[in-house]
Amino acid sequence: MSKSTNVFSRIFDIAVLIFITFIYMTTNSSILFGLVSTVLFGIIAYRQHYLVVALDALIVLLCVVIYNVSNVYVDLLYVIIDTLSLCFTGVISGIMLKNRQKHFSTIVAVSISGIIKMLLSLLSIKREGYDIFETLIENPVNLYTEYTSSILKQSGAYSNETIDVINDLMNSFVSGISTLMPAIIIIISVITSYFSYVVVKKMIEIITKEKLYVQSFSQLKMSRKASIALLVFVLLTFVIPQSIVSDAILNIVVIFLFAYFMCGLSVIDFYFRKTKLWWWIRLVIYVILITVISMFLGALPLVFILLAMIDSRRDIRHIDMPDIVVEIKDDENES
Questions:
Q1: Alpha-carbon Rg of the chain, whole angstroms?
Q2: How far apart are the first and last CA of the chain?
Q3: 335 or 4: whose pLDDT is higher?
């Protein structure tokens, strides 16, 4: 590739980044364009030198600052959040893939980037005086309780004992969600970050014509040591009295169980993908089946967890592959 071509390519990349940043800041499609920017930064981080990546991130930062200046008010926290949303996860994904890091290390790094962005976003919302927990959990629960009470009154089944039972159940639900909020935040961050990472990896393969043999979702598996760690944490929840420490351990247990649930679903996907259906079609089928079956079989998540535990001990899929292998498709040699 000639020097002039490289210069033109860099100018094009910068122009696209500026355009995406402007659209991200001025429209309501921040999630979509945030993903587009993440993918672009992932490709840049995979193909370019670290200094080039840093320069592009600086350009995005300047664009965000200029936009805020045009609105006569610059909020440092929002500037950081917008900049990280546009480039952080993409840069981490591209660098980890370029350096051929272990699959588990890559997922952890990408997840940490998502958690940092989530925490900063929650901090900004909290600073504005909004209580997310009250808005998303307490208020809907209170409305549901009031609606249930009105239905009972109309049906003639209203009684103080019934209302007390409903209130106790709802209070327990709210209290449980409040205790598990850290785990919920981490799980949501991991899911969104992993999705972004998968998209980045796929686009890198398309743009660079390289096949990255990275462990797919159908090959996720927990280690044997993880099973022992989970057992220890579960036992600690029964031993340690109610306190901040016990709440923290409970959140760790929930995160472990979520990981095992996803690995159990991975076992199912390992065999189901032989149908040759596209991944997004399989995803829709999984969501529908899990939702419907869970309505009649509440123990379904436990089935997936147990399946993942068995697989971690017995390796029923016989998965044995390197973390990342790159195969370059050379069209000229093939022809």
A1: 24
A2: 21
A3: 4
Where does the chain have alpha helices with state H? 3-26, 30-47, 50-70, 76-98, 103-127, 132-133, 139-155, 160-179, 181-208, 224-239, 244-272, 279-296, 300-314, 331-334
Contact 152, 162 (CB under 8 A): yes
Q: Which residue has the tokens 């259906």?
A: 277
Residue 318: CB atoms within 10 Å: 6
> Distance between CA 122 and CA 189 in Å, rounded?
12
Spatial CA neighbour of 30 closest among 121, 130, 145, 156 = 121
> How many CA atoms lie within 13 Å of 218's alpha carbon, on the beta-carbon side?
16
- Mention every residue, 6+ apart, whose C-beta is less than 8 A from residue 80: 120
Residue 146 to residue 154: CA distance in whole angstroms: 12
Q: Where are the domains of the chain?
A: 1-130+181-213, 216-318
Backbone phi and psi for residue 211, each to the nearest 5 degrees, phi listed first:
-100, 110
Q: What's the pLDDT tens digit per position in 283-308?
A: 788 778 777 776 666 677 888 888 88
Q: Hey, which residues does 211 pair with through a beta bridge?
A: 327
pLDDT in tens, 227-274: 888 889 989 988 888 888 888 999 999 999 999 988 888 888 888 877
Whole-model pTM?
0.79
